[in-house]
Automatic annotation (TrEMBL):
One CC-aspect GO term: membrane
Annotated PANTHER family: SENSOR HISTIDINE KINASE YPDA
Residues that span the membrane, as ranges: 12-31, 43-62, 74-95, 115-134
Keywords of the record: Kinase, Membrane, Transferase, Transmembrane, Transmembrane helix
Signal transduction histidine kinase internal region domain span: 157-235
Record bears the keyword Transmembrane helix: yes
Species in which this protein is naturally found: Apibacter muscae
Pfam families assigned to the protein according to its UniProt record, in alphabetical order: His_kinase
GO molecular function, one term: phosphorelay sensor kinase activity
Name of the protein this chain belongs to: Histidine kinase
Keyword Transmembrane annotated: yes
Length: 350
């Protein structure tokens, strides 16, 4: 993809060079249209343009890369001084020849030789400066592009690392739930393993992309909630209000699962009644997830409440939606409340 983009950029640069020089070579005809000395004016202008083009490209294609970019500035200046001096002499001889050969042109009184040399020397510095400006700007753009590419690669690598952390963490928590069911209800434990296999299939195959359809992600969340409900008793009530998605909005995979996991880790008690609530809302350019659960303290030996999932979520949000999301969590009485609102990117609407 990058090579294709680079090839396109080179073709565009070549095209722009062709257009600019084409306009410069045609302009003498445009400005001298209808004059008797049109042929002479065009030829004299072409001599200057050919010399300027030579000076431009010898710097653009060779001298700047070989000497300026290798900090050999003195050699670069010396070569250009010699080349300009030779071109001034060549231009003087060629134009003088055109003056003497054209029968329709009356040669005016010529300025002093020093003025001629001074004017041509100054004018020939211009294509050299343009070549220097273009080549340095191109190098700057290339350097910035490479820097952005490296930063993007690092970003993608970190995001991939964070996403892969979710899978063993998710699997570990699910195994804890299954373990708690083995002695109490073997049949439910079997059903849970079957449901877990479906969820793992989504984790391994369908979520292995930068974005997934929001519809698929909600389906995954619903299946996970149903899996968690298998181990719950009548003391725990789960309320879910997720929207039905008809549009093809894309979001990063596994973005909300940590909040759902966290609610089940802390909101379930074997002896007390509790309520766990999940609500998702979707606007034109924003999506929000609300979670509320009773806050039961975990024992020190219970590693499922280590908070890795929420830390992971915040890191991913910082990388994916910098300054484009709001995350808040608070304890109100004996309830733990989480609000997450994300401003969707333009490319996530497809």
């Amino acid at each position: 993809m990058n090579k294709f983009r680079l090839l396109q950029n080179k073709k565009l640069v070549y095209f722009l060079h062709f257009v600019v020089w084409g306009v410069l070579f045609i302009s003498p005809y445009l400005f001298s249209y209808g004059q008797e000395e049109l042929s002479f004016v065009a030829r004299r202008s072409w001599v200057s343009l050919l010399i300027y083009a030579f000076l431009f490209y010898i710097n653009y294609l060779w001298l700047i890369k070989k000497f300026i970019f290798n900090n050999k500035i003195l050699i670069f200046i010396t070569i250009n001084v010699i080349v300009i001096a030779l071109l001034v002499i060549l231009k003087h001889e060629l134009i003088f020849k055109l003056l003497t050969e054209d029968p329709h042109f009356r040669r005016p009184s010529r300025p002093s030789r020093s003025f001629f040399i001074y004017f041509d020397s100054i004018s020939m510095i211009i294509p050299m400066v343009f070549a220097l400006a273009f080549r340095i700007s191109e190098r700057w753009v290339k350097t910035e592009s490479e820097k952005n590419e490296v930063e993007n690669y690092k970003l993608q690598a970190e995001l991939q690392h964070l996403k892969y952390q979710i899978q063993p963490h998710f699997f570990f928590n699910s195994l804890n739930n299954i373990y708690s069911l083995v002695d109490i209800s073997p049949e439910k434990a079997k059903e849970t393993i079957h449901s877990l296999s479906k969820l793992m299939r989504y984790l391994l195959y369908e979520s292995n992309t930068e974005t997934v359809r929001l519809e698929k992600e909600i389906e995954f969340l619903n299946k996970y909630i149903e899996l968690m409900k298998l181990r719950l008793t009548e003391k725990t009530q789960v309320k879910v209000n997720f929207p039905k998605i008809s549009s093809s909005i894309q979001i990063p995979p596994l973005l909300f699962i940590s909040i759902i996991e966290n609610a089940f880790k802390h909101g379930v008690s074997a002896t007390q009644t509790s309520v766990i609530e999940f609500s998702m809302k979707l606007w034109e350019d924003r999506i929000s997830l609300f979670s509320k659960n009773h806050n039961f303290q975990k024992s020190i030996t219970d590693k499922s409440g280590s908070g890795i999932g929420i830390q992971n979520l915040k890191k991913r949000l910082d990388l994916l939606y910098p300054n484009q999301y709001e995350y808040s969590s608070e304890i109100c009485g004996n309830e733990f409340i989480v609000n997450l609102e994300i401003k969707l990117k333009t490319n996530e609407f497809q």
